[in-house]
Structure formats: structure tokens, C-alpha cells
Amino acid sequence: MLQYIGKHRCVMDTLNLPTDLLSFLKSLASESRLNIVLLFLDGQERTVNQIAESVGLGQPATSEHLALLKQAGVLVSRKEGKEVYYQPDQSKILQTLETLNRLLRSCCS
């Protein structure tokens, strides 16, 4: 639901936003999680330990951040032996960004 402020429709009621969009946005609201996501700009998948070392966090904290990012649809994982590899979920990210784009265009036009 959009609320009007003056002439502009610019405040959205977060209760009416799609839950997957809210989860996605909340997952990126942490500087640590944003730093984790930015590691993947090179297109390479990484293990939990590689990510923890790169962002300067302990393995338990990194695992918690990765779980939240995975739950939000930002990352996907695969297991190979004892290692878990993470990479961005490109299709889910693009789909969510398209939803956000549509909402912002309707809000800010």
C-alpha cells in the first residue's frame, strides 16, 4: 500500500510488500552480509572458510550470515565432501530486483 506525502506517493507499507522482497532487502541491510555478497563479483564460488577469511569474521558468524543470505534467496550452496560452496542465486536475485524495480517505478513516478 502506498501512502501519500504531499504530491508524491513515496512511503510504502512494508506489511504489504512481498515477503521474499522484504527478506532479500533485510539480508543486504548488514554491512557484513553486503561484504560477503560483494566477494562474489568475480563470479567464483567460495567455501565458508574462504568467505570467513576474506571478510574477517569467524566461521560461526559467517555461517549464520550465509544461512540468512541463502534463506533470502541471495545465495545457493552445494556440498562437496565436507565443504559447502556458495555462489549467488542469479535468477532469484534478478527476479527480486525486477520486483523491486516495478515497485519503485510505481512509487516514484
How many domain modules?
Answer: 1
Molecular shape = elongated
The CATH H-level superfamily is: Winged helix-like DNA-binding domain superfamily/Winged helix DNA-binding domain
Reported CATH architecture: Orthogonal Bundle
What is the total tally of β strands?
A: 5
How large is the radius of gyration? 16 Å
Bin the helical content.
Answer: 40-55%
Low-confidence segments: 1-9
Mean pLDDT comes to 88
> Percent of residues in beta strands?
15-25%
Supply the helix-strand structural class. alpha+beta
Q: Could you tell me how far the N terminus lies from the C terminus, measured between alpha carbons in angstroms?
A: 15 Å
The SSE order reads: EEHHEHHEEH
Profile the largest sheet. 3 strands, antiparallel
The spatial strand order of the largest sheet comes to: 3-5-4
Number of helices: 5
CATH class reads Mainly Alpha
The name of the CATH topology is Arc Repressor Mutant, subunit A
Give a verbal description of the structure:
It contains five helices and five strands. The chain has a single domain (2-108), classed as Orthogonal Bundle (Arc Repressor Mutant, subunit A), CATH 1.10.10. A hairpin with a 2-residue loop joins strand 1 (2-5) and strand 2 (8-12). It starts with a strand and ends with a helix. The chain has 109 residues and is an alpha+beta fold. The chain has a three-stranded antiparallel beta sheet with strand order 3-5-4.
